[in-house]
User: Which sequence fits this backbone?
DNA sequence: AGTCATCTCACGGAAAACCGTGAGATGAAA
DNA sequence: TTTCATCTCACGGTTTTCCGTGAGATGACT
């Protein structure tokens, strides 16, 4: 007899949660362990150690904190939570983004019903799952490039950096401190700080080392 | 009429300083601006902004703080001081080490007399100078590899890292914080701190970013 | 005219990194 | 057996980074 797979569901539309629960309940291997209506609730729920789930079904658009932020939270805290993102957007950028944030599966709401059970079982085993429409989007976009082990080039993140942010990033890789940069660039320390912060946010890394590593990988050096 | 070149001399043997001064005084383009008997004195001297010199003649073996530490101090403070190292050791490692620390010239005490004036003038112009015996050592060792722009591969530094230090270094590149590392490695936070400190010292970088960059350059990743 | 991105700066607090120094324990090499 | 490197830990202090939040100024695009 197999072990049960425990699942937590997060979506701001109660009706959708109920739908998912209904579908999931048809499979006796899977059991729902609570649900959340906002990203904050998700984080709060998982922060209590008696509340754990093998898989989290996560909507991207939610009030208070959206799905991205929930993923960021897990990544930041180094919590290795298996997450399946449930989205109404079949946008490549979003898919890439959540992949970078460590999500293990992605299904669009269009055909969630037919995929959800399978997705949960697959992800619970430690594999990745993408509903076939998402898969085709991915493949099409990365023409020729096979989907590797969840590692996606994040060139598109690089594009989102402003001039000033790039300047700061470069200096950081040269071991400059904030004060030294402010001095060099003739800016207030606060300003440089602001750029650091937005770099950390945009590139979604934990600290200056993460920024440096990012810079290296994208040969900004 | 050319501008004068101001020189500061540091060596723990007064007699050697006097010798150098005597030699230098034969050239009216160069003028001595003070001397120091310990590394600490050097740092103290330069820390006063009325005390500046174009070129610092620096002995490696000195009490209180040796020449290495003086160079490290300049590098750390990002002071672009031109330094000629004066050493009794014609050891390759030492030459490489001081080159990495940003020194611009190296002459051995054996033939300091015939080289010192020329070395000072060369370095003052912004070029590098090595007495010919040092040059031959360098060339011999890096068989085939021409002396580049003062950038020397520091593989030998890498060798000096211990297992534990390497472990920590790797984790640092993965954006781990000290606390997280201590947790993961089952060590006290203090211990991990110790490794960080010795990494910073050994690799002679300013901060964690420097460590990460070093790791990348030497493909430790 | 209004929205938007970017650049600039501020402030206060929490966390982490950095620094210096000292020291016990162990095991290998001289 | 003594020296040496390495690994381990501690303590207290300073500096830097990180976080959150808010906001004015400018110029571009709608």
Assistant:
């Amino acid at each position: 007899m197999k072990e049960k797979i425990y699942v937590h569901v997060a979506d701001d539309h109660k009706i959708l949660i109920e739908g998912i629960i209904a579908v999931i309940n048809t499979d006796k291997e899977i059991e729902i362990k609570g649900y959340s209506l906002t990203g904050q609730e998700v984080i709060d729920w998982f922060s209590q150690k008696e509340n754990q789930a093998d898989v989290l079904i996560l909507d991207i658009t939610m009030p208070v904190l959206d799905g991205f932020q929930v993923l960021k939270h897990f990544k930041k805290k180094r919590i290795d939570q298996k997450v399946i993102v449930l989205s109404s957007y079949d946008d490549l950028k979003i898919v890439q983004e959540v992949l970078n944030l460590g999500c293990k599966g992605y299904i669009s709401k269009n055909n969630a019903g037919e995929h959800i059970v399978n997705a949960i079982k697959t992800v619970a085993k430690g594999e990745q799952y993408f509903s076939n429409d998402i898969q085709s989007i991915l493949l099409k976009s990365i023409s020729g490039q096979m989907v590797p082990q969840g590692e996606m080039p994040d060139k598109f993140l690089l594009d989102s950096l402003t001039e000033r942010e790039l300047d700061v990033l470069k200096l950081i890789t040269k071991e400059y401190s904030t004060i030294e940069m402010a001095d060099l660039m003739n800016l207030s320390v606060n300003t440089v700080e602001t750029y650091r912060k937005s770099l950390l946010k945009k590139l979604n890394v934990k600290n200056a080392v993460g920024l440096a590593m990012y810079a290296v990988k994208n040969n900004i050096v």
User: Anything to note?
Assistant: Residues 177-179, 193, 196-197, 200, 206-208 of chain A lie near DNA strand D (CB under 10 Å from a C1'). The CA atoms of residues 21 and 49 of chain A lie 23 Å apart.
